[in-house]
Amino acid sequence: MLHNNRKLDIVKKPIKLARTNKEINKVRGLRMQTYQNNHSDVRKFHNDGMDKKAYVLYACDKDNNITSTARLLPDSKDGFPAESMFSDIVQKMRSEGKNIAELGRLVINEKKGRFFRLYYKTIYDIALHNGIDIVLMIMKVKNIHSHKNIMAIEVLSQDMGVSWDQEQAKLVLVAWDIKARQPDLFYKWTKTQIPSIYSKEEWKNYSPFHLGVLTSIQHEVYKSVSSQMQGRVLDAGCGSARIMAFIKGNINVDSYTGVDFTKGMINQASWLKEQLKFDKAQLLHNKIEDVQGEYDSILSIHSYYSWPNPDLVLSHIYELLKPAGIFILVTPNHKFNAEKLTSSIDLELLGHPYYKEFMQANYDIASKAESSKLYLPMDCLIHKVRKLKFQVVSCHNEFFLGGASCLVLTKDS
Question: Which residues form the N-acyl amino acid synthase FeeM catalytic core domain (predicted)?
Fold first, then answer.
């Protein structure tokens, strides 16, 4: 009998997906050995989530004995086995349209560090595959801190009023936000690629507005940054490369290379290059971390927050920069105020054919970045770049009405 006939390619060895009665019975046996059999609230959970809707996972030792297990149960009309303990919370999530699941019966009897990583990566992949927003978990109070370091979790209930093991440990209910950006340690720990909070489609749709609108606030940034460029210049995350017009007017610049991972942005930048007749410019549809070469000057304006792995990109920029070269990084900080900026540019943009679309796109971008805490205070940004060997020449937060940090960085000669 198949207990789960779903695709197995998201479940990687040594983790297995239980699909037969024999496997389920072995998992049940491990549960019964682990949890208290003299507790009525526990005994009834030995069989929970063993139906066809659940993902019952397990791993074996070299003798084929099951040594670990976990169960992910997506929501259904039947609800969750322990739902009576947190029914108000579940009902509220359902009313908000959340797609939820419950993770439970996590038992690991060997190599806990390695297997915790493997199970959580598998659960995360299954949840993403199924479009699950929130995974509910009941855990011991003492484990909350360690989980917060690696997962985007929120404590929903401080005391479940029941204990399931010999420790009689206090249990709490937490919600793991699968769609949120997880702490960087999670991606490192599980060897998972850090996802971007923005889709390629979003940047493609934004590209005409990025090229078609230039505010006085942007003009100030482009003029200041371009005047400090010299030699071979790299624009890391160039977008539509609006700064090209300013770079072209700098007689100290030998060449300009703009790189962006959004094809739509590069298409807009290519059109602009033709209009400017800027023969010294080249445009690359590529990831910043895949760019090769050596550059005297590198700039990056309002791109940092969109990088899935900022440390990786910054480290590569460091390698691309010539000794004693200059790298100017401009990115929104925690004081970025979209409403304040809107009121300041309304007068110059009212009547512009792209006005509404431009403002809405920027609101959407800012909202995602702010909710993901990607607009860092300047001191945090300085701490990060120094850890990556950059030397800070100067810094200020005067751009974008105080809402953007500007760091002028260099590399030891």
Answer: 49-157
User: What does the block give as tokens for 89?
Assistant: 């919370």
Stated as kind and residue range, the H or E segment containing 196 is: none
Helices 338-349 and 216-227: angle between axes, nearest 10 degrees? 100
Amino acid at 82: A
67, 60 contact by CB (below 8 A) = yes
The residue to which tokens 């769609």 are assigned: 179
Cβ-count burial 177-186 (b if 16+ within 10 Å, e if not): ebebbbeeeb
Residue-level length of the chain: 413
CB 204 within 8 A of CB 361: no
CATH architecture of 16-190: 3-Layer(aba) Sandwich (3.40)
User: How would DSSP label each residue in 51-73?
Assistant: STTSEEEEEE-TTS-EEEEEEEE
- Fold assignment, 200-410: Rossmann fold (3.40.50)
pLDDT in tens, 39-55: 555 555 555 555 678 89
Q: Which two tokens stand for residue 63?
A: 């003798």
3-state secondary structure of 149: helix
Is pLDDT at 251 greater than 60 in this prediction?
Answer: yes
| Cβ within 8 Å of residue 366, ≥6 positions away | 332, 336, 338
Task: Tell me the whole-structure pTM to 2 decimals.
Answer: 0.64
Determine the Cα–Cα distance for residues 356 and 300; give it in Å rounded to an integer: 26
Amino acid at 146: S
Pairing label, strands 134-140, 153-157: unpaired
Domain boundaries, given as residue ranges, for the chain: 16-190, 200-410
Backbone φ/ψ region at 191: left (φ over 0), alpha (ψ -120 to 50), beta: left
CA-nearest of 349, 299, 324, 330 to 398 is 330
d(CA 396, CA 404): 9
